[in-house]
Design a protein that fits this description.
This protein is of the alpha+beta class and about 350 residues long. The chain has eleven helices and twelve strands. About 40% of the residues lie in helices and about 20% in strands. The protein starts with a helix and ends in a 13-residue tail after the last strand. The structure holds phenylalanine.
């Protein structure tokens, strides 16, 4: 009895010290096997219990069980310490470079449409614009009437626009993001400064048109907003988006029912057959429509046109993505071909910012 008590106490001390002193996982493992393994010392002592008489076995069994648990715990504690040390050492040795690019195989690619919209938002965000949204299914009044689009305008024809059947109010799949101008002006008081990225729909299908496509609308309304603001804002946008500080930008008179005067914006390029290069050259590419908000549109939204004026613009997302990233056929954007996406897509964590550079 007494022998068992003394033995277990001495063994306990010894093993706990040995475990705490183990310097490697291997050393620790050999201690574990030597004590708790099938032929280990503690295991052997426990096997000896069978030879004792009942009274001694009870007392010795309790002591040996406690010993076994304490030994196992000491080994486990040391194992945890060694793991922590190993982790600390590997962290200290190889510091993590958080600026490394994402591995190309993970975690998927960002679609060029999403990337382009993010880039446009980053640029206008810097200029103080906020993002507004509206529904894809729009009422005739917001899409056409309030925007001063006359009944005989081509966009109103059945062959240009998707109308929804059976509604009391005539519903359309919006043909442009301009109805969000109306929704915003009805809700907010000037000053207004918004951009509106979103899906738009027209009955069109060829290499440069798809029945569903994307636009970004812009709207600024304030007391003294004038054509100079419109020009400065859009010239800055074109140069930032295409990454060319001296990109030639031209305003060509045009017509939209909801702006007066209206213009289309072209950027400089060099053309060689189907190929073109954006920048100084002898040719122009049209990239967006714009103008001063027609006073009738302001009045339709309850804004006093003798106090306020504004400008608006609308650009095609697919078009500017195709131009910037050399994507030849617009239909591929929506075919969900992973090979295409792998080729034209963007790394998932390269969020465009003006500070970081738009398209790294
Ligand atoms: N909504 C016009 C279009 O889709 C673009 C535009 C928007 C023009 C705002 C002027 C002002 O063609």
């Amino acid at each position: 009895m007494i022998a068992v008590k003394d033995d277990t106490e001495a063994i306990r001390q010894q093993i706990i010290e040995a475990a705490a002193a183990a310097r490697t996982f291997d050393e620790l493992e050999s201690i574990r096997l030597g004590e708790l393994g099938r032929k280990g010392r503690v295991t052997r002592l426990m096997k000896g219990l069978g030879a004792m008489d009942a009274e001694d076995r009870k007392e010795a069994g309790r002591r040996l069980n406690t010993l076994k648990n304490q030994v196992a715990e000491a080994i486990e504690t040391r194992h945890r310490e060694l793991s922590d040390d190993a982790l600390d050492a590997s962290l200290a040795e190889g510091s993590v470079d958080v600026t490394l690019p994402v591995r190309p195989e993970s975690p998927g690619r960002v679609h060029p449409i999403s990337q382009t919209i993010d880039e446009v938002i980053a640029i206008f965000g810097e200029m103080g614009f906020t993002v507004a949204e509206g529904p894809d299914i729009e009422e005739d009044w917001y899409n056409f009437t309030a925007l001063n689009i006359p009944p005989d305008h081509p966009a109103r024809q059945e062959h240009d626009t998707f109308y929804l059947p059976g509604a009391k109010e005539r519903l359309v799949l919006r043909t442009h993001t301009s109805p969000v101008q109306i929704r915003t002006m009805l809700e907010a008081k000037p000053p207004i400064r918004i951009i509106v990225p979103g899906r738009t729909y027209r009955r069109d299908y060829d290499a440069t048109h798809s029945p569903m496509f994307h636009q970004v609308e812009g709207l600024v309304v304030d007391e003294s907003t004038h054509m100079g603001h419109l020009k400065g804002c859009l010239i800055d946008f074109c140069r930032a988006y295409f990454g060319q500080e001296d990109l030639p930008v031209r305003f060509r008179p045009s017509y939209f029912p909801f702006t007066e005067p209206s213009a289309e914006v072209d950027i400089g390029c060099t053309r060689d057959g189907d190929e073109f290069r954006i920048g100084h050259g002898d040719d122009w590419l049209e990239i967006l429509g714009c103008g001063m908000v027609n006073p009738r549109v302001l009045e339709n939204c309850g804004i006093d046109s003798s106090l306020y004026q504004g400008f608006a613009f609308g650009l095609g997302v697919e078009r500017i993505a195709m131009l910037k990233y050399g994507i030849p056929d617009l239909r591929r954007f929506f075919e969900s071909d992973l090979r295409w996406l792998r080729y034209y897509g963007f790394a998932a964590l390269d969020v465009p910012t003006m500070v970081g550079g738009l398209d790294q």
